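By way of example, what follows is a protein record of this kind.
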Amino acid sequence: MLHEREIMRIHYITGLAALFVVAVHILMRLIMPYHMSLQFSNVIANYHNFSYAVLLESILVLLAIHGFNGLRVILLELRQKSSWENGVTIFTIAAMIAIIAFGTRTIIVANGLGVG
């Protein structure tokens, strides 16, 4: 099990990394006019661009880790019982894995690789 100090270090690193990848994502959206970037054909073309799909996956993973760890910290401040802490940690890890799995599935399906 990781110490709380190490978990918070991961929290800070994922926060800073998320700022970087989201900034790159926003800059890439500014390449073409906003209304064109939301057209279905352009969105699907983005998923077919391997570099951009990797960027989207990294945004997904970083924000899921950062966000669910933040939720875990908030929930841990409500109670300090060991059973509560273990339950909250298990819940947030399970929810984080589920969100990452569903998001990754979406990227794979949109890329035309299919699932199943």
